[in-house]
User: Which sequence fits this backbone?
């Protein structure tokens, strides 16, 4: 029976998002999976993250506790899902599976994947107004909110255009709010 693990040699994950490190094989009838381990080598050292054997699933490195899982009930799919990636998760991960054959001898295979954790640049911001149209009566309340995607932290700054290309800094929040508009609030904001 010919068995091989397959998976990419490197993968990029996005900081604070989740990533799957693929590792899979095509099950063969006369071979029974005995153990599955995922180990890592990174700046913090090395160790076994996860082990599945006849006693169940065990997460052995505390920094991965509650953050890793392997599909259940998907024979041959032994991929590692890591939630909320940290920069310190970058490193080299090894998936190792052992099988027992009909003669009770063990077969072991492993593959290695390097994980890079990247930050995503912020997208161009979108300004949303609470009401359609930006002509409002005096005394009304309104707000503008700024939205951008990307890796945190994202900071916002609101300005009002002044005479001769000057700009006045108004706020460093994602929302600019006017509880009660005055005619002098008319202008161009960015």
Assistant:
């Amino acid at each position: 029976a010919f068995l091989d693990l397959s998976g990419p040699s490197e993968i990029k994950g996005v900081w604070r998002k989740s990533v799957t490190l693929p590792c899979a094989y095509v099950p063969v009838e006369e071979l029974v999976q005995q153990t599955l381990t995922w180990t890592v080598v990174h700046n913090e050292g090395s160790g076994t993250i996860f082990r599945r054997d006849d006693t169940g699933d065990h997460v052995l490195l505390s920094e991965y506790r509650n953050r890793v899982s392997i599909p259940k009930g998907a024979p041959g799919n032994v991929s590692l899902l890591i939630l909320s990636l940290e920069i310190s998760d970058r490193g080299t991960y090894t998936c190792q599976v052992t099988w027992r054959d009909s003669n009770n001898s063990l077969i072991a295979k492993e593959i290695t994947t390097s994980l890079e954790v990247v930050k995503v640049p912020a997208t161009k911001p979108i300004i949303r107004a609470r009401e359609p149209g930006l002509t409002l009566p005096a005394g009304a309340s309104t707000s503008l909110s700024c939205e951008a995607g990307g890796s945190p932290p994202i900071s916002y700054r609101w300005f009002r255009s002044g005479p001769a290309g000057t700009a006045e800094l108004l706020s460093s929040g994602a929302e600019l709010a006017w509880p009660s508009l005055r005619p002098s609030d008319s202008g161009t904001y960015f």
Summary: The chain has a mean pLDDT of 92.
